[in-house]
Write a structure and sequence with these properties.
CATH superfamily of chain A: Hotdog Thioesterase
CATH architecture of chain B: Roll
Helix content of chain A: 10-25%
Oligomer: heterodimer
Radius of gyration of chain B: 15 Å
Helix content of chain B: 10-25%
Number of helices of chain A: 3
Number of helices of chain B: 2
Strand order of the largest sheet of chain B: 1-2-4-5-6-3
Largest interface: A-B, 44 and 46 residues
Number of strands of chain B: 6
Structural class of chain A: alpha+beta
Strand content of chain A: 35-45%
Largest sheet of chain A: 6 strands, antiparallel
InterPro entries (chain A): HotDog_dom_sf
CATH superfamily of chain B: Hotdog Thioesterase
Shape of chain A: globular
Number of strands of chain A: 6
CATH topology of chain A: Thiol Ester Dehydrase, Chain A
Distance between the termini of chain A: 50 Å
Protein name (chain A): Beta-hydroxyacyl-ACP dehydratase
Distance between the termini of chain B: 23 Å
Strand order of the largest sheet of chain A: 1-2-4-5-6-3
Number of domains of chain B: 1
CATH class of chain A: Alpha Beta
CATH architecture of chain A: Roll
CATH class of chain B: Alpha Beta
Order of helices and strands of chain A: HHEEHEEEE
Strand content of chain B: 35-45%
Chain lengths: 165, 134
């Protein structure tokens, strides 16, 4: 029996993909390990085969494999989007967009082989606006990111279409 | 053929070295780039309605500051960031950075991003630190 049927607070990757609008190369979340009310733990495994390592010069020391900080934050933001969806904070046809960040700190670098755990908590929600807080740690307990505040605003997908040329 | 890199990368934001000049309080750096430089990432963000991810704007600030300083820089933290308007295919991003010294050898960067139509797209306040040699 698939694991998620035993644990309805968990999502496998097919269920994550069904709830996120991002697609490769910007789909940066694998599973939801737990979800309860306004909290969520989501995972993303980093591998050395990812596109960000494609042009890395050989030979390279392990420091060169630090996972790009932009992608780390995007992955965290996608965990926020999943919590928005699972907590049913807005209509399904809307997309939560990141509009604000405050007091974010990067910690130890994340590396291929790490499984990132994004711990996200809803702090406040009103209408189309949500504020979340959280952190990201690796499976062996290294904190790689702390986010005091991330704000999202939900927008109808249709309103984001590029104007016709 | 892409140039081999010293560190992992997401995309190349800069077509050429950014313009920089000393000003009161630090160095002013200006960059213009077409949003299409992030086209490969926008394919998946999002299919059918591509938007330049805000995190790539953040990485553009990092890349521009690193080019101006002349060394690889990594983000230490983000004090505050506001993303006020989406950047869409066809948009050109105008970025203005003020780089100034910060504690412990770090650099502080305040950045304002506007679209070619003059409307504000984002404001960011970040701290960067030199990347140790790999």
């Amino acid at each position: 029996m698939p694991d998620h049927l035993d644990h309805p607070d968990r999502l496998d990757h097919s269920q994550v993909r069904a709830r996120l609008r991002q697609r490769p190369p910007m789909l940066l979340l694998d599973t939801v390990r737990s979800h309860q009310g306004g909290t969520l733990v989501a995972t993303k495994a980093i591998t050395g085969g990812e596109d960000c390592y494609r042009d890395l010069a050989d030979p390279a020391g392990i420091d060169a494999f630090a996972y790009p900080q932009a992608l780390l934050l995007e992955s965290f933001g996608q965990a926020v989007s999943l919590l928005w969806s699972l907590a049913q904070l807005g209509p399904a046809d809307e997309v939560p967009l990141m509009v604000g960040l405050r007091d974010l700190a990067y910690g130890a670098p994340a590396l291929p082989g790490d499984v990132l755990e994004h711990h996200v908590t809803l702090r406040h929600h009103s209408g189309q606006v949500g504020e979340f807080t959280g952190h990201t740690e690796t499976g062996d307990g290294r904190t790689v990111l702390t986010v005091e505040s991330i704000m999202v605003v939900s927008r109808p997908a249709a309103s984001l279409l590029s104007p016709a040329p | 053929m892409p140039t081999a890199t010293r560190t992992a990368k997401v995309f190349d934001a800069l077509e050429r070295a950014p313009h920089s000049e000393p000003v009161a309080g630090g160095t002013r750096v200006t960059v213009r780039l077409p949003v299409t430089r992030a086209a490969a990432q926008m394919v998946g963000h999002y299919p059918g309605f591509p938007i330049m991810p805000g995190v790539l704007l953040l990485d553009t600030v990092r890349q521009a500051a690193a080019a101006a300083v002349g060394t690889d820089l990594a983000l230490a933290g983000i004090g505050r960031a506001r993303f006020t308007r989406p950047l869409l295919p066809g948009d050109e991003l105008h970025l203005s950075l003020l780089i100034s010294p910060a504690k412990d050898g770090r650099v502080a960067v305040r950045a304002a991003a506007t679209r070619a139509d003059g409307l504000a797209a984002a404001q960011l306040s970040v701290t960067l630190q030199e990347v140790a040699d790999a």
